[in-house]
Write a structure and sequence with these properties.
The structure is a single chain. It is built from 17 helices and 32 strands. With 689 residues, it is of the alpha+beta class. It has a domain of 203 residues. A 15-stranded mixed sheet has the order 8-7-6-5-4-3-2-1-15-14-13-12-11-10-9, with helices on both faces. Helix 8 runs parallel beside helix 11 and helix 12 packs antiparallel against helix 14. The longest helix is centred in the C-terminal third of the chain and has 24 residues. The chain is globular and about 70 Å long. The protein starts with 5 loop residues before the first helix and ends with a strand.
Length: 689
Amino acid sequence: MMAYKGLAAVLAASVLVACSPAGESGQAGTPSAAASGPEATVFTVLVGGTPIGALEIAPGDDGYTIDYEYRNNGRGPTLAETVTLNADGLPQSWSVEGASTFGNPVAESYEFIDGEARWTDNTGENSAPLSEDAFYVPENASPYWLAIAARALMADEDGILPAIPGGELRLSEMDALDVTGEGGDRSVTSYSIAGTGLNPVYFLMHGENFFGVISPGFTLLEQGYEGEDERLRALAAEYGARRFEQIQTRVAREYDAPVRISNVRIFDSRNLTLGEPASVLVEDNRIVSIDGPDAGRDGEVVIDGAGGTLVPGLFDMHGHMGETAAFLNIAAGVTSVRDMGNNNDVLDGLVENIRSGRVAGPRVFRSGFIEGRSPFSSNNGIIVESEEEAVAAVETYAARGDMHQVKIYNSMRPEWIPAVVEAARANGLRVTGHVPAFTNADAMIAAGYDEMTHINQIMLGWVLEEGEDTRSLLRLTALRRLPGLDLESAPVQATLDALVENGVAVDPTFAIHEALLLSRNGEISPGVIDYIDHMPVSNQRSARSAWADIATPEDDVNYRGAFDQVTAMLAMMHERGIFLVPGTDLGGSFSLHRELELYQTIGMSPAEILGWASWGMADYLGAGEDLGSIEEGKIADFFLVPGDPTADFKEVKTISLVVADGRVYFPSEIYPEFGIRPFTEVPALTKPQ
């Protein structure tokens, strides 16, 4: 459906993608290379090396006008900005007009008048008195805000400024490097800005002139220097690895002794029951024994479970994995993730870093992403232009030996799918995916899909007119037609019959539909209410912004009604015995907790949900021998919550301990590394004398 809102945040607001880089090597100061000549005015947006849009800057006497637009996967922001600066380079006024990645209108403004900052964004009208210099960080803006902020921070003595509406901006200089392009050889400097979000943002300056923004999958580069894209994305990936390696060093607990978690009740994920008080002994990365609650021997590290519940590690079955998501999944007890499409080279590096212990992250089950080439292509995985190339892509993925399945995407030609399925079967791979444009779920079930991805991809087939193109935002906006759909109608029931008869599973991504259909400007999105006040200011701001363009009261009613229909459809599928798969497409972590919580609305109990999201998914992926339950001999993947999540599912949201592949983590030590206020205390721990 969406390949996770992270890309929107990266490109529309420069809060970089799930695979965001980091690592700071020094304080800000005088630029290491003086700017030569005027600043460039045109910059190219690239995703995975493919140009998808542009940033254009027009400098004025006291500021800039900026135009920014890109299109990836049939969507993207269109923004027009006007910025005026005071004598110190701080924003005096700022206006942003246009639309966000998913179509929500943007009409943002800021002004500083008589000692007061006043701003209006998608959260509403706000103001604050200012007694010191501060920098307004727009909610929706082009990445050029980084250059404006960088120059102000360079002029500041310690490279730190209070941020409006909250937090602070901190500039750090990273590296000096040389680049080559049509404008000649350049010496540029990489910097980071941090302080308002989960991670630093990484960008390049030529003296005081803006040169670009970098991340492992995305770059924005001065026109004429696009040839540096691959090298700079690799540099960003290395910055990220360094940052997360440093965090891993601080928070991963590895002991030269067996570790016992005492006085806990173990959730039996096969039988959906809560056991009597016990203790669990871990050595290396295996559970070596399950004993009485106070059992123990000399030489053990003992962690007091304080009567809490030990739950097997959860599975997010729809991820697009990056380093931030990897770390935060571990803190949330999500110890396994099925990646549903990625930049293959970037994911290769991340998986290796997780396996080696360099960074924290879940076990990754990979899907080979196959997309057709079109103006609407998602620039991930392998992009093909013919049936022969599509079959070759399947064989390429099969030859790697590390793929769980292949995933079909929107711009694939429907007539190619039977050959893709046949090739996948011949190579022992499953097939899942979107419904390609100009066809429907019935045709993909008949072609041999093993699993359907996103509930909207199925339901759109019942409300679209012939010829409507779902490679665009229509595949989201057309959901407002759902309230008029009779779920008992013959076409709906025929599709459900086909799913049942062919044993096709469904990956609904329930929580992302809630976010799309129920988020409203100025209101906290319902899926984040339980944790948003613990998050950095940029996340809190985003949580109060709509995704879609809710232009009229009728739209509001229809989008809300659409979510009711989605919920009713999933209840119907559950009742019919169609196998559902819990995945978020939102990065997992807190979003997986919400994804699972929502399934209570279709009749599933907390115990049923926990067993389904642990043992059920381990078994579905063929990994049940090692994963999915807390048993002697299995890999030590589990988490501790103080209460009883089988009685109140919300207890899953307060995790005090995670053991992932035998490594011990305390989420309360991880969260501050990302600007998140912890939810629990660190359990009492006793080391051997």
